[in-house]
């Protein structure tokens, strides 16, 4: 039996809606959901070496003194240049003893298998004061940089000038306050970083999103974080993607509170991604 014109129209509309809904279902929002956050035995972190990190100190033009530790590439070749990873600590390690910033996350770079796999300089400054301030200490949503963060970035320049660093492969990562500073560092120095990985931080003003569209960014955050709520990172990732940034992704850990997921510490999955990133050559 022939279908009526109204029936055909209804079926066509239904098919169109199905197609539309199907398309919507496959849109990449840049969010990767991890349903069970892996856990790492604390004893593993406590066993990580720290003695191989040399000591240094830098005084910036703004008067801020930055103690720092640094790790050289294993078996470095004097004729080669190497990537540099800037690791930024949380508020719990603020100080001037040049030891507190060598937390478990920083020391993972000295694990023999990782140090061999990733030939790089690792630079770990210690902030004498906060590197990032928040709009609301109770429920932060926006972060802004401080003179201490500016001083640390000036310290990076001085370090690079004195060591065989590949200037196209400078990366930044950090947890909590250090995650917030990781968001802010490429805004303060858009010429410096090839990739960034903020962990459980607070993002900057969403108005700055267009300035981050070209930077490869991986954002890690637990959805049960009450200290630095994940909403800030969700909003910033959405803003960057809305502005045309396709190389930003948010890795959400279900049920994870304000801590680093166990698959991050010794993980090669994110390090492999990071070390693949390079800033364009000037002619590009």
Features:
single chain, about 280 residues, alpha/beta, Rossmann fold, nine-stranded mixed β-sheet, two-stranded antiparallel ribbon, 9 helices, 11 strands, globular
Tell me what the structure shows:
The protein is an alpha/beta fold. It has a single domain (31-276), classed as Alpha/Beta hydrolase fold, catalytic domain (Rossmann fold), CATH 3.40.50.1820. 31% of the residues lie in helices and 22% in strands. It has a nine-stranded mixed sheet, with helices on both faces. A two-stranded antiparallel sheet has the order 6-7. The protein is globular. Mean pLDDT is 92; it is low at 1-10.
Instruction: Indicate the structural class.
Output: alpha/beta
Report strand %. Answer: 15-25%
Distance between the termini: 64 Å
CATH superfamily: Alpha/Beta hydrolase fold, catalytic domain
Q: How many beta-strand segments?
A: 11
Please provide the ordered H/E string of secondary-structure elements: HEHEEEHHEEEHEHEEHEHH
Q: Major sheet, described briefly?
A: 9 strands, mixed
How many individual domains? 1
Protein name: Prolyl oligopeptidase family serine peptidase
Keywords: Signal
Pfam families: Abhydrolase_2 (PF02230)
InterPro entries: AB_hydrolase_fold (IPR029058), Plant_Biomass_Hydrol_Est (IPR050955), PLipase/COase/thioEstase (IPR003140)
